[in-house]
Write a structure and sequence with these properties.
Length: 134
């Protein structure tokens, strides 16, 4: 099983967000509870991105896996962490989601010892790791 390091994740963000662009860009990332592992990881990613390009700001917002997927699906956040089954249930509109969220995409999984997926709004344009690296 491949493991994705935080440094690689940050590079993916920088590459996919358009590092080096002239105008400031602000994004929201809804991830686990304040002070939790997911929140801490994404806060580190946001700082690494900011170091690479100060014009890119990622606001890290507390919220669990269900909330993160819901917010990404509704367009309130551009990024979030979620589990594979949560993303699948959201896309299909299965319980606990009240309606299908077809624009949610899982674009990364299997970093660390936990099965997680990055969820990204369809407007972002990436649907796979290959597209992000291109």
């Amino acid at each position: 099983m491949k493991r994705w390091g935080v440094g690689l994740i940050a590079l993916v963000f920088v590459a996919s967000l358009g590092a080096g662009q002239v105008s400031a860009q602000t994004y929201n990332a809804t991830v686990g509870g304040l002070g939790g592992v997911w929140y801490t990881i994404f806060s580190g990613i946001a700082e690494l991105v900011k170091e690479k390009d100060p014009g890119i700001v990622i606001r890290v917002v507390p919220g669990g896996g269900l909330i993160a997927v819901q917010k990404v699906g509704e367009g309130a956040s551009e990024f979030g962490f979620g589990f594979p089954w949560t993303v699948a249930d959201a896309r299909a509109g299965r319980d606990p989601f009240k309606a299908a969220l077809p624009d949610v995409r899982g674009v990364m999984s299997n970093f660390g010892n936990s099965y997680l997926q990055f969820v990204v709004d369809k407007k972002f344009g990436a649907t796979s790791m290959d597209e992000i690296f291109q």
